[in-house]
Specification:
The structure is a single chain. The protein is an all-alpha fold. The protein has a domain at about 45-145. Helices cover about 70% and strands about 0% of the residues. The protein has six helices and no strands. Helix 3 packs parallel to helix 5 (about 115-125). The radius of gyration is 17 Å and the shape is globular. The two termini are about 25 Å apart.
């Protein structure tokens, strides 16, 4: 017997917010993509998950500015460290994510998508361009969450 798919009761109550916040997510990420360009998409792939957290779960710890910006900064640092090692790729990738998780938790800047940033950096590239792209995206998303906080509801 397959489980029945139903619309959550919360949706019935907050459907306008579901639409508004989804449209805000689309608009914000669209602007980021248009400004940064198509060639940066792999590097900022973690921003899709950050966008979800900011617009679907804006009241959570992971959506706080210090977590969004700090988490991605940690992810960048961890990815950069392991990009420059001569370890086998499977160790570099695993260690970049593991170290990012450890440092985020230790510094109290937990932001799960930033583990994806560490992985994207260690796989793709380390450059000032990647740093600016990721941090600019993180700042824009965290500022949207901050300035729209009075209008956003947790949808999850």
């Amino acid at each position: 017997m397959e489980p029945e798919i139903t619309i959550k009761g919360k949706f019935k109550e907050l459907w306008k917010y579901y639409i508004l916040q989804s449209l805000l997510a689309i608009t914000t990420l669209l602007l980021i993509v248009l400004v940064l360009g198509k060639d940066k998409m792999v590097v900022i792939s973690a921003m899709g998950a950050t966008t979800f957290i900011v617009f679907a779960m804006p009241k959570t710890t992971s959506a706080q500015r210090k977590n969004v910006v700090g988490g991605h900064l940690v992810g960048l640092a961890a990815g950069t460290i392991f990009y420059f090692t001569t370890l086998p790729y499977f160790l570099e990738y695993s260690l970049a994510v593991g170290v990012a998780v450890f440092v985020m938790v230790a510094l109290d800047v937990e932001h799960p998508p930033a583990a994806g940033t560490a992985l994207a950096v260690v796989i793709n590239e380390v450059s000032i361009d990647a740093f600016v792209t990721i941090m600019l995206s993180a700042v824009i998303l965290s500022q949207c969450c901050y300035y729209l906080r009075g209008y956003l509801k947790d949808l999850v």
